[in-house]
Amino acid sequence: MAEHNSLRGCVNLIVLEILSRGKLTNAYDIRQAIASQSNGVLKSGDGTLYPAIRRMIENGWISIEADNKFYRRRGILKITVEGEKHLRSEKKSWQDFSSAIEEILDGRLESGQTAIDFGSPASL
Hints:
Elements: H1 11-20, H2 27-37, H3 46-58, E1 62-67, E2 74-79, H4 81-105
Antiparallel strand pairs: 1-2
């Protein structure tokens, strides 16, 4: 099975989905969830996950609270109402994108159908 180390195109979708499940979690737990729930195919490095989390905090999609129960201070991440709205939008975009790819791979996409704009960040 091939390993894909870059999640840049869908990291927001994956992180928001994990957080939407309601379990209190931190960045390390998200990294572990990505690897385990993808059977090791997807892996997130610090250069992908942490900048994405910072951007999502800045955009108001997730919030962070200090958790001082442990020796090392960790931030507990939660999805916000705005994040839930963005997640719904990201899921719709991903479903449209993946359906189009499946149609191409299956040879079903006919000329004249609506195209996905690969230049649009929302479509990646």
